[in-house]
Design brief:
Oligomer: single chain
Largest sheet: 4 strands, antiparallel
Number of helices: 5
Structural class: alpha+beta
Number of strands: 4
Strand order of the largest sheet: 2-3-1-4
Strand content: 15-25%
Distance between the termini: 42 Å
Helix content: 25-40%
């Protein structure tokens, strides 16, 4: 099922009662429409693995969104200000079904076999924002 939001009305943003920091990452999928369709399904509300969503929350991530254009994925991760990325990713790698999930999704992704999530997804540098006047 596709999100009911689109580029005309936008996507809602979760609001938090505390400041958050944001990480942005990218990853490429294999250029195969059938695999991309399967990858999209694996991440939808009805097919994503509950243990994976729970693990993401357990390591302190408040929100995670993945956007797609062709074969390019863009992930936004929002966390509390004191979040330590390296510590959280090391913990995530040890949680139930995480290695199984990474092995499964790697068949869709352009990555080395056996890569962890933090090895696959490349951190992006922010190069522009609406600077304060």
């Amino acid at each position: 099922m596709k999100d009911s939001y689109n580029k005309t009305v936008g996507y809602p943003q979760k609001e938090f009662r505390t400041p958050v920091k944001r990480y942005c990452q990218t990853l490429d999928l294999k250029d195969d429409p059938a695999l991309i369709a399967q990858y999209r399904e694996a991440h939808d509300r009805y097919h994503s693995w509950p243990e994976i969503r729970a693990g993401i929350r357990e390591v302190g991530i408040l929100e995670m969104e993945i956007y797609i254009l062709g074969t390019r994925l863009f992930m936004i991760v929002e966390t509390p200000p004191d979040f330590d990325w390296d510590v959280a990713m090391a913990k995530l790698d040890t949680l139930p079904r995480q290695a199984e999930w990474e092995a499964y999704v790697s068949m869709f992704q352009q990555c080395r076999p056996g890569s962890t999530s933090s090895e696959k997804w490349q951190m992006m540098d922010r190069m522009f924002y609406l600077y304060e006047e």
